[in-house]
Amino acid sequence: xxKRLTSFFVCSVMLISMLNLAAADDESHxxxxxxxxWDEEISVSEGGEYDSSILHRYRTVFDPPFSNGSSPIxxxxxxxxxxxxxxxxxxxxxxxxxxxxxxxxxxxxxxEFGDAISISVTTTDSSCSxxxxxxxxxxxxxxxxxxxxxDWSMSGVDGSQGISFDGRGWQKRTGEVLESNELGNxxxxxxxxNGTEGAIISLxxxxxxxxxxxxxxxxxxxxxxxxxxxxxSLGVNPDPDSNAQIQADIDDARVLRSxxxxxxxxxxxxxxxxxxxxxxxxxxxxxGAFGQIELFHYEIWDENGFRRLYDVQLEANASVRLSAAxxxxxxxxxxxxxxxxxxxxxxxxxxTRLYGSGDFDFVASDEYPYIEVNGTIPIFHLQSxxxxxxxxxxxxxxxxxxxxSGSFGQVREIVESGVFSNSSGTLFEANKIRNEYWLNVSxxxxxxxxxxxxxxxxxxxxxxxxxxxxxxxTIRLTYVEDNGTEEELPENSPVILQADAPDAQSIFSNHIxxxxxxxxxxxxxxxxxKLIGNKNLKLHIHVSEIEEGIVDGHAVEIxxxxxxYADLSLASGSTINEGVLSGLLDKVTRQVxxxxxxxxxxxxxxxxxxxxxxxxxxxxxxxxxxNTPLALADVPxxxxxxxxxxxxxxxxxxxxxxxxxxxxDAISISVDLSEIGLGVIPLS
Length: 684
Fold this sequence. Notes:
Helices cover 4% and strands 63% of the residues.
């Protein structure tokens, strides 16, 4: 029994010793990796403005990981941050800490496009290094040209803004300049209504073109142009007692949004035909006017929050609806013309003309006493130019028959234009308008009736200032009666007002843009960083996998990533992770909800997009595995002196080399002539 226990004890000790040796051997072969761990650092200026920058940090992780609260013992951390060929780091710019089983390295420098960063970490049991080239998100450093398929949509949660796109994209880099274009079709919906004023625009877009130009990481030019057709609903309320509604079919629509030199320019031009309603007039109404638009033109031009151009033109005909004695009738307006144009904040054109005539016939009373009314409107003519009334003429002549008969009429016309005083004695130019109404009675019904039918005659002269933008425009009234005249001078008339220039209203309050920012061109599993280049669309990225993928027939390594935006909106995709296209998005899906505008007055915007690389136009070789090494051509004398020999008597000699370059991507050829004391010589 004792021998068995002794044997068991000896075996146990040997087993434990072997396990300890194995663990020690495993730890002696511990490996490490350096991961990107960039975050956002917020600073506040003396003026209270917030600014963000990259928190430049790296993590060193170990395999197997440290346990039981132990951490690596760092013996050396070496970092270079190369910009324009020089190391911009000093010893004060680098700090490191070993805690939690990892080593964190933080740099005070901020990465810029084209920088090269190298880091090496050495501990007592492992060492690792990493080299990074810094680029902008989805913008490879090397020259390239690719096309992509894209579909996206953007809309306001409240339905006030919306646009969809389905098309192809093109991207090309030449040096520090990157150009990006997208061309396709889609739709646009804009709601500029403020109550009952403003416009709603809905367009089917046959062409959508988005062009962007970057220099390094800066967006220096963006043009967004849309062409198509659709409809517009436009509301105009010049005063509480009048309104106009326009419903037009748009056959020529052009929308442009441009950003250049820090300035935003937005232009809309719409042309078409449709219908107009004045004062709620319709085919079934008893008031207002309703007619067909023969010409409709609407154009605006906003630049940096200022409306440089506002141009509206309307030509139509309409039927005017009137109501009398419970019945309705109408007459025709042969001309309904409206023009208003503002340039650089100044009204340069205003013209309104309503001209027409017609007959009317209606039953004023179909019970006792029965009365039928007939009449004519020989002329109806209202016209203004340059914001001033020049014609105000209405003539009505009619008769009524039945149980009672007689005639009636109205004459309203400008009989004089001159200078007249108001209630305070101030002189104003005004139109003297004759407004006369009469009712003559020829016969009356026999027997009692509920209302007397009496002859009536009213003649009033109205003195009205011509400026249509002013308020309380009537400065004097003269009532003409049988026994003389009576004057009335309204108080506080006129009220002098200036015409209000139209305000700029942004089509889209921010650039049509996606997340952007600085990042490494090549990722590793576990890398994480925050893209902060677009302050309205910051994206936190985590790289989860590295795998082989196919991009337009090219076998390349790709990095799989997923990301979250500030409000937990999502994005996911993959980037090419090797070669000249490293850093280019291969595929991406975005589902974003975000607030646009100033704090306290933000609009909620929803953005959904799917995008993938379609073709690689250049270069033809995008990874080292695809490249065929250069070789001497399989021809006689592929490597020879033109003169046949290399002379030493002061003569000239030309070395000629024929090479086979399958991929046509040779950059330079050199020859090593060190054995004859000439060193390495580049060939032309």
